[in-house]
Amino acid sequence: MVVAALGLxxxxxxxxxxxxxxxxxxxxxTPGGASSAPGSGSGAEPxxxxxxxxxxxxxxxxxxxxxxxxxVESGCRLIQTAEGGYVIVGAAAAKLRTGAAVTVRxxxxxxxxxxxxxxxxxxVTAVVTG
Length: 130
Hints:
Low-confidence stretches: 1-54
Structural class: mainly beta
Strand content: 25-35%
Largest sheet: 5 strands, mixed, barrel
Protein name: Lipoprotein
Mean pLDDT: 72
CATH class: Mainly Beta
Distance between the termini: 43 Å
Number of helices: 1
Region (Disordered): 19-59
Order of helices and strands: HEEEEE
Organism: Pilimelia columellifera subsp. columellifera
Strand order of the largest sheet: 1-2-3-5-4
Shape: globular
């Protein structure tokens, strides 16, 4: 029983873990600087260049543009942006190929732990371009 509980604490590149601090991701910005934080505006969703009008972001979502690169650990991939690298996880991330220039939507997941040893974890929920 103890072994099973310990096994849930560290999962390779995609498993959630408890967040004892109860922290949440900071308000996100698009590469152009537009805030996507809840309540940041007149109630209408912000217009994000490159995102189709029928794609509605969820509160806390952000849009990243960059290149998919191999991580330092086997099986890890990152989106390298002008601001830094993010370890990509999620079903939508599995469709992305190393070397591709992409724009993705998702959220930073401080509650996830990976064995990748670099970058913040970013759960890709949609591939906008790429």
